Amino acid sequence: MIERFPSKPNCCNKFMLLVVAWMAFAPPITREQTVSTDIAITLDYEVLPAQANFSKAAFRFWSPDYDRPIRAIVVLIPPNDRDGRPMLEDSAWQDFARRNRLALVSCYMKGRDTSESAYFEAASGTGYALQDSLEDFAHKSSRPEVSLAPLLLYGESNGGVFDYFFTIWKPERVMAFVVNKAGGGAHPEPDPASYGVPGLFFLGLKDTEVRIENVTRIWTEGRKEGALWALAPQPESGHEFSRTPAIARVFFDAVLNVRLPEGASQLRPMQENQGWVGDLTTHEIHPATPDNTPSLKDAWLPDETSAAAWKEFVISGTPLPREPVTESSVRRAATQDNAPSPVAHSDAMASPAAPQTAPYVPTMTFDVASIRESKPDSEKGFIVGGGFAGSSSSLNLSNQSISNMLAMAYHVSIYQITGLPDWGHAFYNVQAKSDSVADDKLATLSKEQAELERQHMMQALLADRFNLKTHWETREGPVYDLVVAKRGSMLHAGGSLPPSADELKSFGDRKIPEMYQHGDGRRGYELIGHDCHITTLVGMLGSLMRTRVIDKTGLTATYDFDLQYNQSSGRDRDADPTIWPSVPDAVEDELGLKLEPSKGSVQMLVIDHIEKPSPN
Q1: What does the pLDDT look like over 142-191, one tens digit per residue?
Q2: What's phi and psi for 326, nearest 5 deg?
Q3: What's the domain range around 328?
Q4: In a domain, 110, yes or no
Q5: What is the dihedral of CA 160, 162, 164, 167, to 10 degrees?
Q6: What are phi and psi for residue 129, nearest 5 degrees?
Q7: Is the pTM of this model over 0.70?
Q8: Which candidate in 197, 414, 437, 563 could, as Cys together with 527 as Cys, close a disulfide (CB 3.0–4.6 Å)?
Q9: Would residue 241 count as lying in a domain?
């Protein structure tokens, strides 16, 4: 459950739900009821204030009926005491949401007493109210991912101050925020964790002096500590907002592409040297460099497109011309599985096309390698594990099967591998390494490039020592959708379960893996996760179910869990109650998740030829 108000835990239990238009007082929506993104739902929720910092907190939710989980939520907050719920009817925001598979939430918040309890102080009540509304919208829309989805916060005037307060309070929840010409008043000391959340601060150069000073002061305090924040002064403008939302959407677009690219399950961090900087004096823009130090004359932007938009805006006060969004591009973005975002953006910059970047081609191999068959004692149990040591080129595997090594080398799940001979189920211990030059090269590469190199090193090792030959095929067949069960997720927050005594004894000074399996197979096996990403669990479930498992949980954090299961689902548990449940039953009973049968395509790695490893 999401934490409630500190003063009265039950003050949000009463609410009023209005389902607008055709959804009036209907039961929760199911995926079978609608499939078209032309149909959108709108839900309303109002919190009774009790002893919080507001006299009114009402929220409106809008989302097309996507066939995949919502990636994130744009929260639109109006100026002080205004009803901002109609803001989500803006076609530009709706187009932006459809294009990126987002939902919109708009707000109407009023303070109890503006002289002593401002509504924009999120931790004093309104932040809890927003979280409660998302929890309710998740239930009523049958979209569990909504309750924990990352937030893109856009606020005007004191709505922008709320964004800032909320980001300081819950930085792990916020993907990016926009403070659009904030009002005056006091503000809290920023939490250093919020410095890593990209932020855009607008100010009007003809606004009141106190507003200009307030926005500049907040931005300056963060920027001098390395905050990933941009200041965007608008010439010839006061306290009006008609031209700023377009730039905000360009900013959000850029951050979304880096922090939550298609297929990612959690927010990725951003660094100063990943972005661009704009000089507040000369208005020139350029890429940030590794030795860039935070400067109070530089605005930080997430990419070149947003930097170009910032430059045009601070010079002319007007966004660059928009490109049209076609109906087909909107439909494609909302319905295609794993499809890239369309080129046409409603707020994209009309700039020359960037040159195509050639794909990275890995070339590295191991210098020496030792491969020996291991014969673990199944009666006593054994641990299968290992991998590359940190960011180096050194590989150490214990009790790994050929299928596990193929899965690592080709970045596939075991169910995607077909054609292995009977002896392919033997276990091996592998030690391989390259030299310090290889380690130095890996250190200069991006995370994705380094991963490609390590996969190539393993592929080359398998080809050399096992004489491996493969090809790829795409096959249609049964798959599973992983969803949150009706009772709700039973996963524990990452890091909340300390290592057991057995784990401390087994792993010693070594880091405990994100996820590992052990057991003797008599009752079954135990799958243990520590700070485990949901994508890692999904990959393992695919291996256990021997087919593709598609993540539709909407869960984006890391989790601890202990899953006890038996793959021999036909065994009679009534006759022997010590036998652990089948994988689907265990997943639902122990994790609060559910594997639902479905149909889909699966890419298969076909083994054309493989031999037992050559001698060391």
Answers
A1: 889 999 999 999 999 888 888 999 999 899 999 999 998 876 555 666 67
A2: -85, 155
A3: 69-105+149-335
A4: no
A5: -130
A6: -60, -45
A7: no
A8: 563
A9: yes
